[in-house]
Amino acid sequence: MTSHSPLCLFIRSSGGGLASYSMSSPAPQPDPDRQLPSCERRSYTSPEELTFHTNSPSKANRCSSSKKTRKSPETTNVPLRNSGWCKRERLAAMFCTTKPPGSVSPAKRQINEVKETKTTINCVTFPLPGEGPEQQLLKPNEWSYCDYFWADRKDPQGTTHVTGFEVLLQKQLKGKQLQKEMAEFIHERIKIEEEYAKNLSKLSLSPLAAQEEGTLGEAWTQLKKSLHDEAEVHLKFSNKLHTEVEKPLLTFRGDNFKKDLKKYDHHIADLRKQLASRFASVEKARKALADRQKDLEVKTQQLEIKLSNKTEEDIKKARRKSTQAGDDLMRCLDLYNQTQSKWFEEMVTTSMELEKLEVERVEWIQQHLRQYTTLRHETDMFNQSTVEPVDQLLQNMDPAKDRELWVKENKTGEVRPVDLDI
Amino acid sequence: MTSHSPLCLFIRSSGGGLASYSMSSPAPQPDPDRQLPSCERRSYTSPEELTFHTNSPSKANRCSSSKKTRKSPETTNVPLRNSGWCKRERLAAMFCTTKPPGSVSPAKRQINEVKETKTTINCVTFPLPGEGPEQQLLKPNEWSYCDYFWADRKDPQGTTHVTGFEVLLQKQLKGKQLQKEMAEFIHERIKIEEEYAKNLSKLSLSPLAAQEEGTLGEAWTQLKKSLHDEAEVHLKFSNKLHTEVEKPLLTFRGDNFKKDLKKYDHHIADLRKQLASRFASVEKARKALADRQKDLEVKTQQLEIKLSNKTEEDIKKARRKSTQAGDDLMRCLDLYNQTQSKWFEEMVTTSMELEKLEVERVEWIQQHLRQYTTLRHETDMFNQSTVEPVDQLLQNMDPAKDRELWVKENKTGEVRPVDLDI
């Protein structure tokens, strides 16, 4: 399944699997019913190295691969969606490679040597290291989610595994929690500001030195009042922090977000379950085929040495069953590969979605933290202005004027004493 | 005592009293021993309208006043210090008037009519309203303490009185207390700042959203740290408030100030006590003279109607005693007037001192409250700068870079799945 002519058309109807797709040639014409030439009909070799033919053309009618791989660095394994050419073209636009396709000859149908080139882990099939054509990143230089999360990871705490997709999903859920923690932090700041404002406001009402009079008294009164003005500034700051930073952080991507994530989670998980189920069927069919082939072999041997009175009829029957088992296996394999393709497509689409969500999250937070710093700047500026009137009155202080005012109010008498006489 | 030739010299030796002094003529020549012409020797009229002569020239040898006053608006009653010409000249420089002296004829020595022109209140003697030459302010347009606190004020709470000087003193003591209250206010502000700083510092250590990574994580970490930077700014503010405003307010004019004020208080109070004592002597001598004169009158009448066998000798004795009583009275009067002059001088000097202290107090407070506003300005500016690094990191945020970092750390596998085959 790894070597294909660059001009190889890919036709998909209801079945399908992962195939190679050359980006340098135009998109193939949509003709789902074109029959492949017989050379390209499928054949397969059983693990016991017996080859046999099947009568049923694969539903996919596609180029199949043999176990022996030919490296083809210029072609890229690109998933195509199940639903039609438009999406295929879209994906084509997404996954643009610049390497020219190489020229590879069709795989031989029968090869006596069996070499393991693939491995199936947790029901997902991967090429073994060094086997198969080199895979190019779908989105080179972008560190895109869709390129790095194919395998499952062993859960260090137990015997279960975590899928790559779950890692991506956890990141988004974590992001939601982190945004909540940020909101909490801002909330704590708000409380501190309110406390500060409350204390300043209370102190501004203090009667300390209220008996100071004149221009000094005015300056002092304004100084005390300025604490209240500062309190107002900080209160305003805390209110804006609440409406412009804390609250948005709390409500950004509300409850629906988690639901949407869960939908993604279930959708992908379901596809993996389906895949597991299909893989089980493949294994079961493979075993059944092996049994049937063994039975046929035994019966043929017996005929040759005339050990039993089994007739040719029996052998024909055994051969028929064997062929049916082979057909079953092919069908199961097809279904498995279709399901894997489907899962593959959904993985790409959904991981790209998560990637987008992450970019949005980061940018949104950046924007709101900038709002925080803007409010901080404003606050310091407004705070500075509360000192201005105090400065003004301090500048206007006039001890002479204060004396005049005080003397006018407190004088006891202007008439100076004179000598006493008789 | 109110009408004097502008050229009238004032001579003071060890006695003395309040006299007029013309500021427009040059300071008199210092000749304490010049004897006044006989016309200017003192004579006085007793309350009973008997006139008598005294043999003893007044110690002061000064112009005296009769009970009848002549208004002389151009002359000013100016106190002169007891201790010599230099201070007299100094006071002259202080109390500069611009009105040209008027020309007044010397008072007649004997006037049959007795008109009350003065009143003694709490042992201090004042001209009655409308009587005596108009008094000009010692320091016009300055609302100087030395011009407005001559009389005592009735204590509204009781039957005692409060001297003008005590009002001035209380002002300074009050000032000391107000400065202490200002220090207390600043102290409260310091506590508020420390609380605020403590809260910010504590919050800056919060682990909230610490798991945010990449450039977003860096910006968030710096945002949290900036709270600690703000805390440092406010702590610095509170420390400076303490050393540059609160502490000075507490220590300005330490304990010595109150002691100094008390010294002034006692000094002036002592002079008033002396004055009271001298006044009592005057009253006592006045009464003794009256008794003596009564006795003389009775004896003279008896002689005329030959009612008794009193001889001329007895009458001469009575007359002698009367004359002595008159001398006593004059002496007491002199002492009283000297003491009043002394008190007067000290009042002027000390009230000027208090006035100066008040100006200094107001200016010192102005300076330190300006320090407060300066610190406030600085604080807001430093506070602004704590946001800069946060802004910087927010600007440098890069979702693509963050993805790269995260993917590198968390990827599960780059190898994409391929179709399964047999």
TrEMBL record, chains A, B:
Residues 141-402 form the F-BAR domain. Residues 19-81 are annotated as: Disordered. The keyword Transcription does not apply. Residues 286-313 form a coiled coil. CDD domains: F-BAR_GAS7. Keywords: Coiled coil. InterPro entries: AH/BAR_dom_sf (IPR027267), F_BAR_dom (IPR031160), FCH_dom (IPR001060), GAS7_F-BAR (IPR037957). Residues 31-43 have a biased composition (Basic and acidic residues). Residues 44-64 have a biased composition (Polar residues). The keyword Coiled coil applies. PANTHER family: GROWTH ARREST-SPECIFIC PROTEIN 7 (PTHR23065:SF57), PROLINE-SERINE-THREONINE PHOSPHATASE INTERACTING PROTEIN 1 (PTHR23065). This is Growth arrest-specific protein 7. The gene is GAS7_1.
